[in-house]
Amino acid sequence: MKNGPLFLFGLLVSAVIAWSAIVLGAHGQLGGLTPWFDDGEGKSHPARPTGLAARGQLVYADLGCAACHTQQVRRPGFGSDQERGWGDRQSVARDYIFQERPQIGSSRIGPDLANFGARKPQPPSAETLLALLHSGSDRHPAFPFLFETRKIEGESSARALKLSGKAAPSVGYEVVPSERAVTLVAYLLNLNSPYVYPEAKPLVRAVAKEEGKK
Amino acid sequence: MSSNMDSNPGRGVAGASDDSLQAEHEKLLGKQPDEKGHYRLLPLNLLFLLSAFIMFSGTYLGRFSGYFHPKVYNEYGLPPKPGADSAAAAVDPIALGKNVYAQVCAACHQPNGAGLPPAFPPLAGSEWVSGSEDRLIRILLHGLQGPIKVNGVDYVGVMPAVGPGSGYNLNPEKVAAALTYIRKEWAGIDTPVSAAKVAEIRGKDGTRQPVTVAELEKLP
Amino acid sequence: MITSTIQPPPSDGDMVGLHARGPLLTAFGLAIGWLVASGVFSLIAAIQLHSAAFLADCEYLTHGRVRALAETSFVYGWAGGAGISAVVLILSRLGGNPLRAANWFGAGSVFWNLGIAAGLVGIATGDMTSFSLLQLPRYVQPLMVFASAAMGIAGLLAWSGRRRDGTFASHWYGVAGLVLLPWALTAAQVSLLWFPMRGVLQAVAAAWYTEAVIFLWLTPLSLACACYLAAKLVGRALPSYEAAPLAFWMLIVVGTWSAGRHLVGGPVPAWIPTMAVFSFSMLLYHFAVVGLNLRPVFGLSGSVGSALKFGVGSYLLYGAVAFLACFRGIALRTQFTHFASATEQLFLYGSVSMILFAALYFLVPQLLGRGWSSPALMSGHLAGATIGVVLSVVALGWAGISQGAVMLEPKTGFGEIASGVRPYLLVNTGAQLVLLASNLLLAVNFLRSLCSCCQGSGVSTALSEGSAS
User: Fold this and answer.
1) Most CB contacts within 10 A, which of A106, A193, C281, C358?
2) pLDDT grade for C456, boundaries at 50, 70 and 90
3) Which region among C26-35, C283-292, C405-414 has the lowest average model confidence (pLDDT)?
4) Residue C111: in which H helix or E strand, if any?
5) Measured between alpha carbons, how far is C350 from C333 in angstroms, rounded to an integer?
6) For C76, which DSSP code?
7) pLDDT tens for residues C219-274?
8) C330-350 pLDDT, tens per residue?
9) What residue spans of chain A are helical by DSSP H?
């Protein structure tokens, strides 16, 4: 290692090879993923997020929601993701192809949100979510800065939150969600990828089918 | 030793000078052959350790690599067989047929297959549906023109072709699936119509004018 | 046998050159400033973990943003700033010449710190990139590349212009750390910020960058310091030194192949997490040899020696824990839990930071030309840091393990999980408080030493201005 240029060359080559193998290698495999067209349904999956939802993802990212919520379901049998109703199949790369900034996250201080818009028996309503964002709960922080408390002039706004108890604004005032709150909620309710891609099928079922054929 | 030394560790500790420190270590790395002319190797125990790690990691990688396949997400999984990906193979013909029916046929024949007199004959209970498979395939591939008698009632209308090359451009799989669904639903026939047969008839007949009842009756 | 050849170092203290003292001391001072700032952010984040409402209604301090602020000011501000400065200083000492391109280092360090300051404001106002360890907003990212390269140039020149022909372990690790950060930052920025890859590939590229920060930047920087300090403090050549080159190359070559350990069970093909186990089991050789090489530090005493001992020990422990957590069966219980924060804390604080503390206490007197003003503050700081790290790593690790166990029970709701780990999180808050207090001791001690030095020997007053961050 006395030879300076050779040493530097070795350093860079090692780093470049590792980067190429992991990042470019994965890119070569997954970079060209296309939506999956299901002949039976005559539809392709995943669907593009709606315009509101795509903007809501940026709000989700800039508030740092990913610090507590993941958006990746692990396969049935690996953890309790399925039993908790987060999704019946594991998340695969195809789920994220239309997402500008996927927020797969790495910490589950709160529940996983990958299929939040498909919660059984029914997903929470937009009003419930807005109320949670406004007032928080025991476990969830409040984000009042996403809302505007203003004096009611004339008729109260149709978008005003119906709050009761402590969170309710004083008489003559109303709480209206800002655009950011609206897009964030639209994004959360748009999170939904139930379609089972061939590569996402749980292994057990595939094996059973094969045995059946034999 | 003390606080003085503790507060001034950089100067007070009896350590090597930067120069002698390097000289000592260079000596250790020097690649001069020893007396017997051998180069210095890694100590045997480290060499053993290194090979153990390499062997373990190699075995693990070989076992759980998922064949480095982009579609294997489970480390125990096998790569999908070539061709297994094509949707048609995986799709249930009844489900596909129901879908095609809903998109293409239901506007005239109605979702419940009752038809819409006087132009659009019913499928439910129709002797044509429970009858010859060949005739049905030709009706779908080429369309039907002229009057047709169903359940004793005359209908006069035009049915457009839905097969390949027509305005609907359904492939043979979809035509077969639609027929399979129709026959199962309204005639109780379980035998599926095969896409191969549809393709064969399409190949034989080519693109042509809509068929008439007279032509159909010549067929088996 | 070797000690006999060692001569007392008469002019050791003057070798860096007077002109380089200002920039280096400024850089150290600013790094300590960021350390204190990150302590405040970490404390807020720790409180929010058990009391969700704490300050979260302030838009600039949501939990996600505070986490990003704490991580960025710690990794780039403190560990990066102090690590690069210490390595440049060590390379210059080993080179045996006064530091060349000290003005490059000074300018780079100013822009580096300005970039971090602007970046923290950006994160607080919602411009973070949401990639772990790459949270600085995109508009300051290019600046960080140039600033780190400019600081590194001084180190590279010291290395290439060295008096001796041969090299020492600190040379390899130090140069690797200085050279590879600008490269890794560029690669990460191109693939994540300028031409973002599609979908889940962003997660892969971000995981790779995390590994690059750990194994191509912070580890080399801290090991460069550790090898130098160990050789100096022990006064003997490092044992099993002939195995060191291979251990070094093992780190550089396979270190970042372990990116998949952040994606176990995630939406990536199976080979990516499997590759992490592959590379980490090769890395075990690196950890084993580092342990062999640096084992004399475990016999050291004194404040600096104990800090170094703790840092090296934490590094080895980190290797073992991270290796185990690569495996799917174990990751199943540890991933997505506080255990991950505990491992990160063990590496960033227990290993990198403690080694840098030792380096700081060893090197700054050489720059000042006199000792630290208060040995009591020094031992207080190190004792506090040790207690804080042990407490927070144990508390978070324990919380993570119990959290992971109940997470596997689908019946247990998140409220129940949270109240189960609450006692540990309270301990963690206490630990963060201790860490913050101990780091304040370091800051006070540094400022006092600087002032007494300025008054005593009349070194330019510009120094003290720079360090008053």
Assistant:
1) C358
2) low
3) C405-414
4) helix C102-124
5) 23
6) I
7) 999 999 999 999 999 988 899 898 999 999 999 999 999 999 999 999 999 999 99
8) 999 999 999 999 999 999 999
9) 4-19, 25-30, 51-63, 126-135, 179-190, 203-213
Q: Please report the pLDDT score of residue B3 as a whole number.
A: 38
User: Could you tell me the pLDDT band of residue C7, with boundaries at 50, 70 and 90?
Assistant: very low
Q: Which pLDDT value is given to residue A41?
A: 73
First-to-final CA distance of chain A? 60
pTM above 0.90, yes or no: no
Residue A121 preceded by cis peptide, ω within 30 = yes
Q: What is the CA radius of gyration of chain A?
A: 23
- Evaluate if residue A208 carries a pLDDT over 90: no
Mean pLDDT, range C4-19, rounded to an integer: 51
List the one residue out of C435, C433, C422, C434 whose CA is nearest residue C396. Answer: C422
Q: Which two tokens stand for residue B67?
A: 């064949």
Q: Which residues of A touch C269 (CB under 8 A)?
A: 26, 29-30, 93
pLDDT at C463 over 60: no
**CATH code of the domain made up of C29-467:** 1.20.210.10
pLDDT band of A37, cuts 50, 70, 90: confident
Q: Say yes or no to pLDDT of C10 above 50.
A: no
Domains and CATH numbers, chain B: 39-80 (no CATH), 88-218 (1.10.760.10)
Pick the CATH number of A44-199 from 3.40.50.740, 3.40.50.720, 1.10.760.10, 1.10.357.10: 1.10.760.10
ipTM score for this prediction: 0.92
Average pLDDT on B115-119 reads: 83
Considering only the beta carbons, identify the residue of B76, B80, B88 that sits closest to A39. Answer: B88
State mean pLDDT over A75-102.
92
State mean pLDDT over A181-207: 85
Domains of chain C: which residue ranges?
A: 29-467
- Quote the pLDDT of residue B131: 85
DSSP states of B99-138: HHIIIIIHHHH-TTS--BTTTB---TT-HHHHS-HHHHHH
CA torsion through residues A87, A92, A95, A100, sign:
positive
| Neighboring chain B residues of C242 at a CB cutoff of 8 Å | 28-29, 40, 42-43
Inspect the interface and report whether the beta carbons of C278 and B74 lie closer than 8 Å: no
> What is the total residue count of chain C?
469
**Contact B65/A at CB under 8 A:** no
3-state DSSP assignment of residue C170: helix
User: What tokens does A191 get?
Assistant: 């999170």
Task: Answer whether A21 touches B (CB < 8 Å).
Answer: no
The residue written with tokens 């958006």 in the block is A71
Neighbouring residues of B190: CB distance < 8 A, sequence distance ≥ 6: B184
Cα–Cα dist C458/C453, whole Å: 7
Structural Rg of chain C based on CA atoms: 21
In C, residues 125-164, which contact A (CB 8 Å cutoff)?
126-128, 130, 132, 159-160
How many alpha carbons lie under 13 Å from residue B103 in its C-beta half-sphere? 19
**Nearest-angstrom CA–CA distance, C219 and C222:** 5
User: Which residues, 6+ apart, have CB-to-CB distance to B22 below 8 Å?
Assistant: C94, C164, C166, C167, C168
Cα–Cα distance list, A105 to A181, A191, C23, C454 (Å): 21, 14, 39, 49
Q: Output C429-433 pairs: Cβ under 8 A, ≥24 positions apart.
A: C429/C43, C429/C46, C429/C47, C429/C49, C429/C50, C430/C391, C431/C46, C431/C387, C431/C388, C431/C389, C431/C391, C431/C392, C431/C395, C432/C39, C432/C42, C432/C43, C432/C46, C432/C388, C432/C392, C433/C43
